[in-house]
Write a structure and sequence with these properties.
heterodimer; A: mainly alpha; two-stranded antiparallel ribbon; globular; B: mainly alpha; elongated
């Protein structure tokens, strides 16, 4: 097949071309994962600072005063707390949960799973990574501008985000850099999504029909469609916000707004317009973060249970339904914005309906587990963990989907617990599952299973200790976004906050095991065979790591779906997608 | 190579342009809905007379789509005779250059429209209607600039590489260019009815 991708495999490979400005989707995928590793570490340190301050509001944090002038003497001010929160949320949502499971793994694995040599547009692919990198640098630069980082949250609600430095420290250059960074990030994601869609549609190898695509490829494909639509709306929103900040327009700033005793020179804008535009992106973004996890778990589960995934077509239909419905629910983030109660009901209905495909997917995973003799390796454990935290976090979504209950819970830690479970931790577990599963393919070496299992156990216990109590805090009326709970009526929550802080530090420390395992295995792990997990999809027919053009000049031909487990195949209880053998009868269990 | 080149299944370049059209449509839907919401949000919306040159610009961009369409027969011939070496000796067709010139004229016309607006004392910051005028025309102009780059790339492809690549890039670039024309007609309708 003639394609733009086939032109570059013969390029000479200098250092810069090979490791830095590489056109190879595998290198770009690893670059995304490296970037998100830096980002997640930064985001985690920020969360520790917040947790330490919440637990011991009057204690000085050693060394903090020296690196951040906003926290003189190591005491975090309320404004600086909000800055930490804003940067934590922005870094985690954009540069970890979007970057790692979608752009990172998708880039590395998707072209191989469909039997392509590379992405459809390798140059766009390289650009999308480096544009993401620039966006990250611009965001991090907000830490180093004189007034410090922005404080209007990762949602950047107007008019707080729109009026400039009158509205608080960090709302000057810090907030401007935030808007620019997110705008740049949108461009990168649009390039990336475009590439994923064109690649999946046009570069599938012979025999790789849509029905034979692995679930992970389906998930990345659907995610890229969601991302294409969502980031196309966030980019205009960022342009409008930037113009409000630097060009004197009034898209989001209402008339007669007085901030810090100063009448703002803007008139007539609509703060709610920002919320609509932002959440039209923001809710689909949740699915951009979680759907790759759906795909990864659905891809790994059959390989570790040695059974075909239950209802493969139903699962794909569920993911498509979720993608479609994700565009009809944004108003549920705005129940408290003063919207008409009728509108709130209208948004509440699809919000409850979207739980149906999510619940069906969960049941399919659990059904696949039923009666299986599982190979309980680390990837399998993280898949189980994914299902567990997705259910735990998903159930609290039922409560929040109802406007009457949300009006009580919206401003509390209940919401913090909910979205950290269902979006943050579930996606992270998807990332970990994918990493433990594909690491041998990516680096040609095996990770330590013993260390991996310790990492899973401690992390699993840790995240439940962190986020489960938050639901109780929220039910008790503990408000979120406050930097300290020192007033009388909230003092009672401090012991529980201390427990959460200790759990957060403990869970963070458990990640050191992961880092150690990652770096040790990268260089000194035992060499990986071609197909260590006896899995069926195309990434396992090539060497570990794959050659530059993925299949060494071969064009694989596909005869089977990815779900052929639990059968009497030529090599064992599975049939490779490329195997020309006919489908045998199922093995009686 | 049995099927004629013009009737091949879609190439990634063309798929990519279709997907890009989807994304650009979404972002202009966002701008348009922002315009409608902002107009209804408060009574400070000022209607002003559109610069007359916009009507001329509309004709220019329509003409550019027509000239690009006329270039089609050249690529059709190139595709059907791609096996013979003579086909690549010719330079790009003059219709293609006409299109590029008309595209550039359109952009110059848009800048003249801005100057007209500035002459009336209407700036980005002076009110929401003029802000949206500048914004929509500027964002469309930036996208059209990308279309010009695409057409320039087609010229480069004709001069430098095989008929297959030239035809592929022509199909992708012309799809994008016609979309830019349609997008302008949509924006022009919005400007006429709302501003």
């Amino acid at each position: 097949m003639t394609s733009p991708a086939s032109n570059h495999s013969a390029h000479s490979q200098g250092f810069w071309r090979k490791y830095v400005f590489s056109l190879d989707h595998k290198v770009i995928g690893r670059q995304y994962l490296d970037l998100s590793l830096v980002a997640v570490t930064t985001g985690m340190i920020l969360s520790w600072l917040m947790r330490l301050h919440l637990a011991w509001p009057t204690r000085s944090i050693p060394g903090l005063g020296a690196v951040a002038s906003e926290a003189a003497g190591g005491i975090i001010t309320p404004e600086y707390y909000l800055s930490l929160m804003t940067m934590h949320g922005t870094i985690m949502v954009f540069f970890v949960l979007t970057t790692a499971p979608f752009a990172g793994f998708g880039n590395f694995i998707l072209p191989i799973q469909i039997g392509a040599e590379d992405m459809a547009f390798p140059r766009f692919n390289m650009m999308s990574f480096w544009v993401t990198f620039v966006a990250f640098i611009v965001l991090i630069a907000a830490f180093f501008v004189p007034e410090g980082p922005p404080l209007s949250g990762w949602t950047a609600y107007a008019p707080l985000s729109a009026v400039g430095k009158d509205s608080g420290p960090g709302q000057g250059w810090g907030q401007t850099l935030w808007v620019i960074s997110i705008g740049i990030f949108c461009i990168a994601q649009l390039l990336g999504s475009l590439n994923f869609i064109a690649t999946t549609l046009d570069l599938r190898t012979k025999g790789m029909t849509l029905a034979r695509m692995p679930f992970s490829t389906w998930a990345w494909f659907i995610t890229s469609v969601i991302g294409l639509i969502a980031f196309s709306v966030l980019l205009p929103a960022c342009v409008l916000l930037l113009l409000d900040r630097v060009a004197g327009t009034s898209f989001f700033i209402p008339a007669g707004l007085v901030i810090s005793d100063k009448l703002q020179p803007h008139a007539g804008g609509s703060p709610l317009l920002w919320q609509h535009l932002f959440w039209f992106f923001g809710h689909p973004e949740v699915y951009i973060a979680i759907l790759p996890g759906f795909g990864i778990v659905s891809h790994i589960l059959p390989a570790v249970t040695r059974k075909p995934l239950l209802g493969p077509r139903v699962l794909i239909a569920c993911m498509i339904a979720i993608a479609f419905l994700s565009y009809t629910v944004w108003g549920h983030h705005m129940f408290m914005s003063g919207m008409n109660p009728f509108s709130a009901t209208v948004f509440s209905v699809p919000t409850l309906i979207i739980t149906i495909p999510a619940a069906i997917s969960t049941l399919l995973w659990i059904g696949t587990l039923y009666g299986a003799r599982m190979r309980l390796n680390t990837a399998a454990l993280f898949c189980l963990g994914f299902v567990s935290v997705f259910v735990s976090g998903g159930i609290s979504g039922f409560f929040l989907a109802q406007p009457a209950i949300d009006s009580y819970l919206h401003g509390t830690y209940f919401v913090v617990g909910h979205f950290h479970f269902v979006m943050g931790v579930a996606s992270m577990f998807g990332i970990f599952a994918g990493l433990y599963f594909w690491f041998p393919k990516m680096f040609g070496r095996m990770m330590s299973e013993t260390l991996g299992k310790w990492h899973f156990m401690l992390t699993f216990i840790g995240v439940y200790c962190i986020f489960m109590p938050m639901h109780y805090l929220g039910l008790a009326g503990n408000v979120r976004r406050y930097s300290a709970f020192t007033v009388d009526y909230m003092k009672g929550s401090i012991p529980l906050h201390r427990f959460i802080t200790v759990a957060a530090l403990f869970t963070g420390a458990a990640q050191l095991i992961f880092f150690y395992n990652l770096f040790r295995s990268r260089f000194w792990g035992p060499p990986a065979p071609e197909n260590p997990w006896e899995a069926t999809s195309l990434e396992w027919i090539t060497s570990s790591p794959p050659p530059h053009d993925n299949f060494g000049g071969q064009h694989p031909v596909v005869y089977h779906g990815p779900n052929e487990y639990g059968v009497a195949g030529r090599d064992g209880d599975y049939i490779m997608q490329t195997s020309s053998e006919p489908e045998p009868a199922k093995v009686a269990s | 190579m049995t099927a004629p080149l013009m009737k091949r299944p879609p190439m990634p370049a063309q798929t990519g342009v279709w997907v890009g059209i989807g994304a650009i449509t979404m972002s202009f839907a966002a701008y348009s809905s922002a315009l409608i919401v902002r107009q209804g949000a408060s009574p400070d919306w000022v209607h002003f007379t559109l610069p007359p040159i916009l009507f001329l610009n509309t004709l220019v961009v329509l003409a550019s789509s027509a000239t690009l369409f006329l270039a089609r027969s050249y690529f059709g011939a190139m595709a059907s005779s791609s096996d013979s070496p003579h086909a690549e000796a010719e330079g790009p067709p003059s219709w293609l250059y006409f299109t590029i010139v008309l595209g550039a004229l359109f952009l110059i016309g848009q800048i003249l429209a801005w100057r007209n607006l500035a002459g009336q004392g209407l700036s980005l910051a002076s009110g929401p209607s003029s802000a949206f005028f500048y914004l929509l025309t500027a964002v469309h102009g930036l996208h059209l600039l990308g279309g010009l780059a695409g057409l320039a790339y087609v010229v480069y492809r004709i001069r430098r590489s095989s008929a297959l690549h030239a035809v592929t890039s022509y199909k992708a670039a012309s799809l994008y260019w016609h979309f830019m024309t349609v997008l302008w007609l949509y924006l022009f309708a919005i400007l006429v009815t709302r501003i």
